[in-house]
Design a protein that fits this description.
Structural class: mainly alpha
Shape: rod-shaped
Radius of gyration: 42 Å
Number of helices: 4
CATH architecture of the largest domain: Orthogonal Bundle
């Protein structure tokens, strides 16, 4: 058998294994929370905090308005039940009632604004939660797909390891050392296919007088890039 054939098969295994490792690193890096998920969760939390803030503000103003109403009612009862006869005291009480009513009106306006702001904030919270749910659902689908792909990649890695273990005994030690040196110095491509009389790695044509040597048992090298050549029809 052409000595280049097992080296070419080993190169195919090595190249596939390298591609698997690269993809496995990408998949592993993609597992876990994504920036989009974290941003959606933070947005939802900010919206919830804002809605809560306005709910508290509305409740505080409702209590303030009710407290003013109670205070006005108490002052008006005192004003009209005849218990206060001193003119100055009555005048002061009337002024107090007017002041409380103005303050109540102001607080009621603030309450209306707070109610509107709360409704808007709760709507924003609802939309943020809906968006978060969509992002989480998509993220879970992606994570499941990545986990499945990771399992497939790891299974294929195990298959390649078994295939390499079975192949290595058929390769002479000196050929294996040569292959590894070429892989290291030739950008990972030690064995190149010769197609239409030319090296597919560098494009250099092989002299016609040397073509038959590529089909012999001994290793045959490209005269330009020095890679091991194997004829396409020998594969």
């Amino acid at each position: 058998m052409n000595r280049a054939i097992p080296l070419y098969r080993l190169q195919q295994l090595d190249q596939e294994e390298e591609a698997l490792r690269r993809r496995l690193r990408e998949v592993t890096a993609a597992l876990g929370e994504t920036p989009a998920l974290r941003e959606a969760r933070q947005t939802a939390q900010r919206a919830a905090d804002e809605a809560h803030r306005w709910a508290v503000r509305q409740r505080d103003l409702e209590l303030a308005v009710q407290g003013l109403k109670d205070e006005i009612a108490s002052a008006e009862r005192t004003l009209y039940n005849g218990s206060v006869r001193n003119p100055k005291a009555l005048d002061d009480l009337q002024k107090k009632v007017l002041s409380l009513k103005k303050l109540r009106e102001k607080r009621e306006e603030e309450l209306l604004e707070a109610m509107i702001a709360r409704e808007e904030a709760e709507e924003a919270q609802k939309q943020a939660q809906a968006h978060l749910a969509e992002v989480e659902a998509a993220w879970k689908r992606d994570q499941a797909a990545l986990e499945a792909e990771k399992g497939q990649l790891e299974a294929r890695q195990a298959e390649i390891a078994r295939a390499r273990t079975a192949l290595l005994p058929s390769i002479p030690r000196e050929d294996l050392e040569l292959y590894r040196n070429l892989r290291r110095t030739k950008g990972g491509l030690a064995v190149a296919v010769m197609r239409f009389g030319a090296c597919t790695a560098c494009g250099m044509e092989v002299p016609s007088g040397r073509l038959e040597r590529a089909r012999e048992t001994d290793l045959f090298f490209c005269g330009n890039c020095e890679r091991i050549l194997i004829a396409e029809d020998a594969l």
